[in-house]
Amino acid sequence: MLTRSVLGRHIYAVGHNRETARTAGIPVNRVIATTYILCGFCAALGGLVSVAQLGAVSPTFGYQREFAAVAAAVLGGTSLFEGRGSIFPGTVLGTVLIQTVETGLVIINADPYLYPLAMSAIIFVAVATDSSQYARLQERGRRKIRIDKSA
After folding, report:
1. N or C: lower Cβ tally within 10 Å for the chain?
2. Phi and psi of 129, rounded to 5°?
3. Confidence (pLDDT) at 41
4. Residues 115, 101, 90, 43: what is their CA dihedral angle, to the nearest 10 degrees?
5. How is the chain split into domains, by residue range?
6. Is residue 108 over pLDDT 90?
């Protein structure tokens, strides 16, 4: 049985390289199946909550919200370059920030066509920050070879 913390590490390992994960002894097929089962359960739970709130669910519920989902993950600290990140508190705080910005735009009665522009600006800043941090970390990780000029 896969525990929660072990499953998270295994998902990262399988997502990076299936063959290496299989060689390391990780049950790749079981991890993938468990991940799909958990995603299906979360989708069903979301549908039930929607039915409870609205009384009906449309097949297009959540249509074109992929950008906001990726934005929330990036704002929460998930790296686009190496796949490092966490759900709690990172992605949850990113989701709260995205929703707060969208709610603020609604409250100030902004033009709905400006919503994607505002989200894009926030994502641009987050990705630029992430890429500069990644570049700094890569630079620190490189060995500096000093040439001895006295010889």
Report:
1. C
2. -65, -45
3. 95
4. -60
5. 1-62, 64-144
6. yes
